[in-house]
Amino acid sequence: MAQTNRDPLIIAGVEYQSRLLVGTGKYKDLEQTRLAVAASGAEIVTVAIRRTNIGQNQGEPSLLDVLPPDKYTYLPNTAGCYSADDAIRTCRLARELLDGHDLVKLEVLGDEKTLFPDIVQTLAAAEVLIKDGFKVMVYTNDDPIIAKRFEAMGCVAVMPLAAPIGSGLGIRNPYNILTIVENAEVPILVDAGVGTASDAAQAMELGCHGVLMNTAIAGAKDPVLMASAMKKAIAAGREAFRAGRIPRKRFASASSPLDGTFF
Questions:
Q1: Separation CA 44–CA 74 (nearest Å)
Q2: Both ends of the chain: CA-CA distance in Å?
Q3: Residue 232 falls in the annotated catalytic set
Q4: Among the listed residues 75, 19, 83, 85, the one whose alpha carbon sits nearest the alpha carbon of residue 48
Q5: CA 252 from chain center: how many Å?
Q6: Is residue 54 within 8 Å of 98, Cβ to Cβ?
Q7: How confident is the model over 72-124, as pLDDT tens digits?
Q8: Which element (helix H / strand E) includes 10?
Q9: Residue 245, Cβ neighbours under 10 Å: how many?
Q10: CB-based contacts of 3, cutoff 8 Å, min separation 6
Q11: Which of 146, 183, 190, 237 is the most exposed place for a label (fewest CB within 10 A)?
């Protein structure tokens, strides 16, 4: 049987070649958004329904004009929601605006300073949305028990934070992320906290199925160049994970051992 290097990301039964998902906020204008998303190679773009025009504001520039839905998969998110009810309403609005689109990123925040998720409200919203026919990708903390509970509820992907949203601190608790990945039967994507390419590569080396980021790209001095760097980091980290790293050792191990050599 022929070997294949195909390694798609599969979310809710749909295959994607890119494992990098990107946000569409915080850019200086829509043209920079377009260029950065193109440089990232991302196929899934997330959009904050409460903050971005995707047709609800007639006569104003729309994200749909620069990121056409026939080229990108839109992932409406509930950024800015602090209750289950608000998140549910926002997802239903997105479905109406995007002609029945049912793939959503659910986040319900609990605190304006840290932007940590309110897990109780997120669980409540997820339960309603799943029953309502939505395919829920859920933003959560890095608690392996909660991650497994979201999976058991029927979320199509679980997205633990690496660090607080927009902090750029990188993966603060890699062992929790690793535990979540090892116990999961749905895609696990790091969401929030990535600051630079090495953070993205680390997430992939841990076995995460993908990474979602916005600030790390949009907030860079050169967002388009950073988007390109992130694309490469995601690919390299995934290949390294698949290849299998060598064990860590306290002492040296010669690359060219002396055993069997001739003098």
A1: 6
A2: 44
A3: no
A4: 75
A5: 37
A6: yes
A7: 999 999 999 999 999 999 999 999 988 899 999 999 999 998 899 999 999 99
A8: strand 9-11
A9: 8
A10: none
A11: 183
pTM of the predicted model over 0.90: yes
Structure tokens at 203: 């997430």
Q: Which two tokens stand for residue 120?
A: 């109780």
Give whole-number Cα distances, 184 to 159, 165, 180, 207, in Å: 11, 23, 6, 11
Task: Please give the structure tokens belonging to residue 193.
Answer: 């906290």
Which amino acid does the sequence have at 117?
P
List 46's β-bridge partners, or say none. Answer: 23, 75
The tokens describing 138, both together, are 């859920």
Q: How far apart are CA 18 and CA 246, in angstroms?
A: 26
- The yes-or-no verdict on residue 153 having pLDDT over 80 is yes
Neighbours of 253 (CB within 10 A): 8
Q: Which residue has the tokens 């509930």?
A: 78
Whole-number percent of the chain with pLDDT over 90: 81
Six token digits for residue 133? 């026919």
Q: Measured between alpha carbons, how far is 206 from 36 in angstroms, rounded to an integer?
A: 26
Q: The tokens of 2 are what? A: 């022929």
* Beta-sheet strands, E only, within 117-192: 135-140, 157-160, 189-191
Compute the distance between CA of residue 86 and CA of residue 88 in angstroms, rounded to an integer. 5
Task: State pLDDT tens for residues 15-63.
Answer: 999 999 999 999 999 999 999 999 999 999 999 987 787 766 777 788 8
Catalytic entry in 26, 28, 71, 105? 105
- C-alpha 53/C-alpha 41 separation (Å) is 23
Q: CA angle, corner 50, sides to 48 and 56, nearest 5?
A: 105
Residues whose CB is less than 8 angstroms from the CB of residue 198 and which lie 6 or more positions away in sequence, other chains included = 170, 233
C-beta separation of 150 from 187 below 8 A: no
